[in-house]
Write a structure and sequence with these properties.
The complex is a heterodimer of chains A (about 475) and B (about 475). Helix content of chain A is about 40%, strand content about 20%. By secondary structure, chain A is α+β, with helices and mostly antiparallel strands. The chains are: A alpha+beta (about 475), B alpha/beta (about 475). Bound molecules: zinc ion.
Amino acid sequence: MRKPTIGLEIHIQLLTQTKMFCRCKASFGDPPNTNICPVCMGYPGALPVPNKRAVEMALMLGIALNGSIQMVSDFSRKNYFYPDLPKGYQITQDSIPIIKGGFIAINKNRIIELERIHIEEDSAKMIHETGSEETYIDFNRAGLPLLEIVTLPCLHSHEEAGIFLEKLKQIISYLGISTGKMEEGALRCDVNVSLSKSNTVLGQKVEVKNLNSFRSVMRSIQYEILRQEDCLNANQPIIAETRTWSDEESKTITMRVKDSKSDYRYFPEPDLRSLVVSDDMVDQAKKAIPELPQEAFHRLITSFSLTEYEAQLITSAPDLLRYFDQCIQDFPHPKLIFNWISSELLKIMNETNCSVFETGISPKNLQELLKLIQNDTISGKIAKDLLPKIMDTGKNPCDIVNEQGLLQVTDDALLKEIVTKVLLDHPKELERYHNGEEKLFGMFMGSCMKETKGKGNPKILNSILREALKK
Amino acid sequence: MTTSNTISSIHQQFLSNEKTPDFLFNELLQSIQQKDSSIHAFLHVCEQESKLTTKKYPLPVTKEMLDQYPLLGIPVGVKDNINVQGTETTAASRILKNHQSVYDATVIERMKNRGAYVIGKTNMDEFAMGSSTEFSAYFPTRNPIDLAYTPGGSSGGSAAAVKAGFCTVSLGSDTGGSVRQPASFCGVVGIRPTYGFVSRYGMTSFCSTLDQIGTMGTCVNDAFQLLKSVCGYDEKDSTSEKMEWEDLPDVTPIQSFGILASIERLNMDPFVKKMYDKVVHFLSSSYKPTTFDLNMLDCAMATYHVIADSEASSNLSRFDGIRFGLQRMGTSSEESYIRARTEGFGTEVKRRILLGTYILSNEFAGNYYKQALYAKDLVTQEMESIFLQCPFMIMPTALKMPFKFGERKDPLDMYYSDYLTIPSAIAGVPSVSIPIGMNDKGFSAGIQVIGPRFSEKLLWRIAKYIEEGIS
Ligand SMILES: [Zn+2]
């Protein structure tokens, strides 16, 4: 078996107000070619001015990923002709990127090292209409700020690549610098795969592009490893090429063979000065970094005694963590909160395709609901039934409980009456129970609950029933 | 030139009600209509716009108005590589034929704010590549002094328009001498300011590292008056310096001035030599002449061409026929580019794009360009060290007197027209060319006063001193 080596090149679209080198609105989903100006359209005479906020975001990511900040870095031009590239060159960073190095820990014992993170501008979007020969260009995307994150060729499996991407996405969403949504093109990933027998010399690498989900990244790596293995076993050389992933056919296909023609003629961008980062900017970026997933993970374990699994789930998305933290404020019942988030809320989120804050159940609502259970005002079952009502009406759990008479029945006399009635209604079952069929207790309990329309306090009901059955 | 053409004399005529701005414009329009069919200074006369603008000035013109608007009612010729909203800006290239500017260059905005108006767009060598205005894609401009001669270039139209009296002052661009050389050929004053003192925003880039917008006038005061109105920091140009006219260092007492030791060895035209000696002699009566070597003089020319052609090849990539300009459809986007660019660019432009592309190619890994930037630093250091010892230098603008059409066929011959204007361009220092004397054909010799960065106030004083003392 040969050893696979994988490197990733990831582009993330930054959530700035404006584009990278002009003051056009950076927004998504606007009508085509509405956010354009002479600069991002490459009109004669227009000049670029760097977006400070994008630089700050690059610093934030660099710090969060333990990279080394270059206080002076360079902008360069990457020259090539393509209809989506208005100036005939892309402004990027070549010789000195804003961040060198850095790493992400994918588990306790394994870190994935980064080569660099640099700033560049996005190209326009080419739109091919199905059934038409025409290609349209939407320049709204031209000049949007991107960060390119390049790993060292140090991953060795598709699983590692998958975890790496999950971790990266988690961090950028915690930083709030990008949505990281691959399906929307806010995160793009190109893959380099090679196989080698020796540990020191890498094999010929092949690039795979056009990957639109973490799943396709992983599947394409799996496929490439097998394909290259087959090639080498058949004594065929690996060709230096760029391949594209086809989801339908579940395979990679040759896109273009690399040759000496791809000459980007990089040179320092003469319309810009070197990018100088001040100590102040670094301080500001540091201050802007919130608690990161790894820190939150440890906090949940140490402060709230959650298990690793539980902490992992809560920290998987920043809003879930924020939700948890708001619920637990003045209501120190971490397990109870976790259970409700992991079962009920995640279910609702999946069903409605909403984020946790969009479900309509605020942390206050959930807290109130859980308090009602705790002080025996309502049963857990009623509480679950209340969730859709809160979502629909937007009312507080307390108000709904009062309005709909859902208060728990805790009146001993009333419950005793119900138990007596249930036992009288089931003489045969009662006999069987007394003959040792104790599992029928559940049936009696259920029937009693039904009689109370679910409002009976289960604890009290349980003890009355047990007492009654002793007779 | 008669003094009735200067800003101050025009303003006197406005104040005394001898002329109104729109009367002046109609006079000029008549003169343009009579004479420009043989001179061809303009590519486009802004007749309608100027008519409207000049009618709008409040009358009578008062002293207060002139204090507030120092260029009130002053017609300006603008080189056709500078964007003026609503007019054609073609950079004298076929590839931009009929291209309407969608915005005003910063210099245009500023001169308009000072009360001036654009009377027309002046002819030039295509994309400012040339020294004779013969490389305009439309027609050559003729020297108003003798129509058999070229006006120099590349800002030949701007120099000819001022000389012919079609406008009071004009804007040109100077990459290696393109303002000063035509100014000297047409017997007017031309200034190349400190690099970064005048915003390049809105000027079609040829070589971003060296391009500067410069001014021309019939007298020293006028050229500086226009410069004063358009200079200063512009946030839209990242290479512009945070310097305003008011912030320029004040002139301190002068003891000496610099002259080039090697000047005698250069192959100078006898009349140029005579005028140069005259200026040196005149200045020597007040200041002590000090000789300097400029060891980098010979390599300045090569440095210039490597930087200029490299950047031009990239700066001109945006002319691809997709978003604006000449459009030619092919069966592929590549074929469309080839057709538009083959048809749209002239021979000299193609020559420079080819050279620049070659210089930047993988073959040299950008080393020629890097080496040229290094040489640029050496030229700059050498000139700076001279200015540590004397506050300004004198040298001829051009070694030769104006040449006739077609007289310079070898491109290298043409390139040598800029031999003495290139060093200051590379060092980014200001230089003003003043016409001295007049030979039997009616031509003057241009003599440059060169100072350190941001010595414009000093250059104004020295240039005026020479102008008054020698004319
Ligand atoms: Zn824009």
